[in-house]
Design goal:
Low-confidence stretches: 1-5, 107-131
Radius of gyration: 17 Å
Number of strands: 2
Largest sheet: 2 strands, antiparallel
CATH superfamily of the largest domain: RNA polymerase sigma factor, region 2, helix turn helix motif
Oligomer: single chain
Number of domains: 2
Strand content: under 5%
Structural class: mainly alpha
Mean pLDDT: 76
Order of helices and strands: EEHHHHHHHHH
CATH class of the largest domain: Mainly Alpha
Distance between the termini: 32 Å
CATH topology of the largest domain: Rna Polymerase Sigma Factor, Chain: A
Helix content: 55-70%
């Protein structure tokens, strides 16, 4: 995957040297995908209470502060590393919201700077060009409909979709994360996509 002719590895190296342009390009390359992961993982009960882009920005701040500790091996490493940081940031925010025990209906929605023009996942579904969720995942079409379909899945299916399709883990990596074999992870991902397709078409 390249941005302006530069591979992620090159951008990471430049960002480590303090290149602000490389940092901006990394953000442009990965922010929306990480936001998608955050939004799906936080669940519908917290989406009106916590702006997903705030979590993404928090994750990028943490990632940049620890960038020198990141070791690049292959093309998927940066996304997986960033996704893990975002997951930890999300958990911290959810713990805070649980502790506060505020009525979600009285809460003023958090807005991140630039969220009105932040593009990608504005919450307004675009024209439906396909009934295949895998294409929606790759093209970011009709996100609102896909989001509702994923909410209908069993928790283990939702996690499988996030790991295999959003974070882009291999079946071996997915299995390691879930404590399963690669074959078991592959079967889980297959069943999850079948269930997602059915739910997506019902909507």
């Amino acid at each position: 995957m390249c941005v302006c002719g530069r591979k992620t590895q090159e951008l990471v190296a430049l960002a480590k040297d303090g290149d602000d342009s490389a940092v901006s390009q990394l953000y442009g390359l990965y922010a929306e995908r990480v936001r998608w992961m955050v939004r799906l993982r936080m669940g519908k009960d917290f989406r009106s209470k916590l702006e997903s882009m705030d979590v993404v920005q928090e994750a990028f701040v943490h990632a940049l502060s620890g960038l020198n500790d990141f070791t690049y091996t292959n093309e998927g490493d940066f996304l997986r590393w960033l996704s893990k940081i975002a997951e930890n940031a999300l958990r911290g925010n959810l713990r805070r919201l649980h502790t506060e025990k505020r009525d979600i209906r009285k809460e003023v929605r958090f807005e991140s700077p630039g969220s009105a023009t932040g593009g990608g996942f504005s919450g307004t579904p675009g024209p439906v060009k396909t009934t295949t969720p895998s294409v929606v995942l790759s093209r970011k079409e009709d996100f609102a409909r896909l989001e509702k379909a994923i909410e209908e899945l069993k928790p283990e299916y939702r996690e499988a979709i996030l790991l295999a399709k959003i974070e882009g883990l291999s079946y071996s990596q997915m299995g390691a994360r879930l404590g399963q074999s690669a074959d078991a992870a592959r079967m889980l991902a297959t069943r999850a996509m079948v269930a997602l397709t059915a739910a997506f078409r019902r909507l």
